C-alpha cells in the first residue's frame, strides 16, 4: 500500500498537513523527464451531454470526499531528507476544462494527455478535459494523426476489426480490409452527440485506479445514482483431473539474464509517446479453463512481442512482462495514491514459440505463475527501492544515485508492462441526460528502455485496449501492426484446448 494511507503528519509549518513521499512517488520524482512525461491517460465515453456547472461542482465535491488527492509538492532545499506532499483545503487550479468542440478536439485532448503532465506544484495534480460532440468511440477506421514535431502522434479511436471479420493471419491488414466498417448500431452508443472525459494524471502522485475511484464519486454526485463498486464475479474453484496434469515446468529464466527488448520499428523524429486505442470482444474462455482472462491477455502480449521480434530479426531472449497488482478495496475508503505493486512474469524463448510450446500448455503455465506472484507479499518496488529511498542522506544525493542506477540497470528492465484494469467496477452513470459509460480506456507511460505499454479494461462486455509507445522506438504504423498481432493471438487463446 502507499504511505498515503497512513501519512506521517507535520503540522508545524503554517498549520499545514505534510506527507512524506512514499517509495513509488519518490523514485518516480527522481527520474522525471520532460521529453516523456509520466502521465496516465483515462478516457471515458458517455452517450449524452454534461452540464458544465454541475460537473465542476460534482468533481470539486468528489475531491473533498477524497482529500488525499488535494496535494502539491512542497518546495525543498538541497539538504532536505525527503520530498513532501502538502495537503490543501481547496483546489489551487481549475481542474475541469471544456475545450472548444471540433473535429480534432478528442485528438488534441489525447495529445495533451501524453505531452503535458499536470504540475506537481499545484493541487491537485490531475486534469479533466470534457470533449463534447466527440461522436462514437468505435465505428470508423479513419486515422487522424498529429504531425507537429513537438507533439505525439495520436490516432483517433480506431475500431480495429471490431464488428468485422477476424484476422486470419498475423500479418498486417490490407488497405481493403481497413475500409471503414458499417456505421455502429450497438444499442446505447452515441450517434455523434456524445461526450468524452479525458483525465490526465501525474503518475508521480497517483495511479489510474485511484483517479477512477474519484471519478465514480463525481458521477454519483452529478447523477444522483449509485456508483458503488460492484463485486467481481465469483468463479467456482476448479481441481485438475488426472488427465490434465500440469505440464512439466521448464527452468525459469535467470533473474540475471538480460530480457528481450522490443525490437525497434520505424522511430519518429519528435520526442514523446504515441497512442492507439481499439475495442475488441472480451476473450471467451472454455468453461473448464484453469486460467483467467488476465492470463489470456498476458499470453497474448508475450506472443505478440515474440512474433514482432522474430519479424525484426532480434536474437531470442527471455521475455519479462511487468504486471501491476492492486490489492486495494474499491469503496469510498480506497487509499488514494500509487497503490499497486509490480511483479514480473517470465517467459523463456521456447515458450513463446508456437511451434515448440502448445498454447494450452502456455496458458496453464502462465496461470500458475501469475497466481504465485500475486500471492507473494513484497514491497511495491522491491526491497532495493525501499533501501534506496531511506532518508539517510539529502534527497538530492539519492536522486542522483537513483538516476545513475536506473541507467545502469536499463538492460535488465522488463520487456514491457501489461496493466489489466479488468472489468471496470463502477457504473460511471452520470444520470439520464449524460448516461452511463460504455467505453473506458487507460494508458500507462511508455518511456524507454521498455518503450511500449499495453493497458486493457473491459466495459459492457467489450475489451478496451490501449497501446502506447515511445516515439524513439516505434511509429504509428508499428503500433497498428502490433494491434493486429495482439488481436490475432487474443483470438487464438479463445480456442477450446479440448
Q: State the share of residues found in helices, binned by percent.
A: 25-40%
CATH homologous superfamily title: Nonribosomal peptide synthetase, condensation domain
Q: Segments where pLDDT lies below 50 for 5+ residues?
A: 1-15, 136-191, 237-245
Backbone structural class: alpha+beta
Order of strands across the biggest sheet?
Answer: 8-14-13-11-9-10
Describe the structure.
The structure is a single chain. The strands form three sheets. A six-stranded mixed β-sheet has the order 8-14-13-11-9-10, sandwiched between helices. It has a five-stranded mixed β-sheet with strand order 5-6-7-2-12, sandwiched between helices. A three-stranded antiparallel β-sheet has the order 1-4-3, with no helix packed on it. Strand 13 and strand 14 (462-470) form a beta hairpin. Helix content is 26%, strand content 18%. The chain is of the alpha+beta class. The protein has a single domain (15-229, 249-493), classed as Chloramphenicol Acetyltransferase (2-Layer Sandwich), CATH 3.30.559.
In a nutshell, what does this entry contain?
The protein is α+β, with helices and mostly antiparallel strands and 498 residues long. It contains ten helices and 14 strands.
Please outline the helices and strands.
Layout: E1 17-20, H1 23-30, E2 39-46, H2 52-65, E3 71-73, E4 84-87, E5 96-97, H3 105-115, E6 126-132, E7 195-202, H4 208-223, E8 273-281, H5 293-311, E9 319-325, E10 341-347, H6 359-375, H7 383-388, H8 395-408, E11 416-423, H9 431-434, E12 439-443, E13 452-459, E14 462-470, H10 476-493
Parallel strand pairs: 5-6, 9-11, 11-13
Antiparallel strand pairs: 1-4, 2-7, 2-12, 3-4, 6-7, 8-14, 9-10, 13-14
Amino acid at each position: 500500500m502507499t504511505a498515503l494511507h497512513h501519512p506521517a503528519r507535520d503540522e508545524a509549518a503554517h498549520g499545514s498537513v505534510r506527507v512524506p513521499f512514499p517509495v513509488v512517488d519518490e523514485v518516480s520524482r527522481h527520474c522525471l523527464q520532460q521529453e516523456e512525461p509520466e502521465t496516465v491517460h483515462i478516457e471515458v465515453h458517455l452517450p449524452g451531454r454534461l452540464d458544465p456547472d454541475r460537473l465542476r461542482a460534482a468533481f470539486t465535491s468528489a475531491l473533498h470526499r477524497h482529500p488525499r488527492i488535494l496535494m502539491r509538492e512542497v518546495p525543498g532545499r538541497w539538504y532536505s531528507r525527503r520530498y513532501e506532499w502538502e495537503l490543501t483545503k481547496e483546489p489551487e487550479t481549475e481542474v475541469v476544462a471544456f475545450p472548444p468542440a471540433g473535429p480534432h478536439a478528442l485528438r488534441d485532448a489525447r495529445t495533451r494527455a501524453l505531452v503535458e503532465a499536470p504540475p506537481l506544484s499545484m493541487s491537485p495534480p490531475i486534469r479533466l478535459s470534457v470533449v463534447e460532440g466527440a461522436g462514437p468511440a468505435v465505428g470508423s477506421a479513419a486515422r487522424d494523426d498529429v504531425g507537429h514535431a513537438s507533439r505525439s502522434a495520436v490516432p483517433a479511436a480506431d475500431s480495429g476489426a471490431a464488428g468485422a471479420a477476424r484476422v486470419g493471419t498475423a500479418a498486417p491488414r490490407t488497405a481493403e480490409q481497413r475500409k471503414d466498417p458499417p456505421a455502429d448500431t450497438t444499442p446505447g452508443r452515441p450517434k455523434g452527440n456524445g461526450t468524452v472525459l479525458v483525465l490526465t494524471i501525474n503518475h508521480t502522485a497517483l495511479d489510474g485506479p485511484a483517479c477512477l475511484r474519484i471519478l465514480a464519486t463525481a458521477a454519483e454526485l452529478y447523477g444522483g445514482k449509485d456508483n458503488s463498486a460492484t463485486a467481481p464475479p465469483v468463479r467456482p474453484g476448479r481441481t485438475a483431473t488426472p488427465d490434465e496434469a500440469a505440464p512439466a515446468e521448464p527452468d525459469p529464466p535467470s533473474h540475471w539474464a538480460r530480457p528481450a527488448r522490443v525490437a525497434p520499428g520505424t522511430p519518429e523524429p519528435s520526442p514523446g509517446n504515441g497512442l492507439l486505442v481499439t475495442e475488441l470482444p472480451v476473450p471467451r474462455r472454455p468453461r473448464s479453463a484453469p486460467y483467467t482472462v488476465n492470463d489470456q491477455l498476458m499470453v497474448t502480449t508475450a506472443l505478440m512481442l515474440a512474433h514482432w521480434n522474430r519479424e525484426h530479426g532480434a536474437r531470442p531472449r527471455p521475455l519479462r512482462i511487468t504486471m501491476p497488482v492492486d490489492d486495494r478495496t474499491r469503496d469510498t475508503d480506497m487509499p488514494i495514491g500509487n497503490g499497486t505493486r509490480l511483479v514480473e512474469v517470465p517467459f523463456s524463448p521456447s515458450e513463446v514459440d508456437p511451434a515448440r510450446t502448445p498454447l494450452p500448455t502456455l496458458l496453464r503455465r502462465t496461470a500458475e505463475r501469475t497466481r504465485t506472484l500475486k500471492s507473494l507479499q513484497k514491497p511495491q518496488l522491491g526491497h532495493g527501492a525501499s533501501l534506496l529511498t531511506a532518508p539517510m542522506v539529502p534527497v538530492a544525493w539519492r536522486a542522483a544515485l537513483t538516476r545513475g542506477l536506473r541507467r545502469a540497470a536499463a538492460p535488465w528492465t522488463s520487456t514491457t508492462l501489461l496493466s489489466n484494469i479488468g472489468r471496470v467496477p463502477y457504473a460511471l452513470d452520470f444520470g439520464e441526460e449524460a448516461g452511463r459509460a460504455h467505453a473506458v480506456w487507460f494508458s500507462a507511460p511508455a518511456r524507454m528502455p521498455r518503450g511500449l505499454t499495453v493497458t486493457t479494461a473491459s466495459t459492457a462486455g467489450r475489451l478496451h485496449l490501449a497501446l502506447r509507445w515511445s516515439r524513439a522506438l516505434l511509429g504509428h504504423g508499428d503500433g497498428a501492426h502490433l494491434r493486429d498481432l495482439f488481436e490475432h493471438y487474443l483470438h487464438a487463446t479463445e480456442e477450446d484446448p479440448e
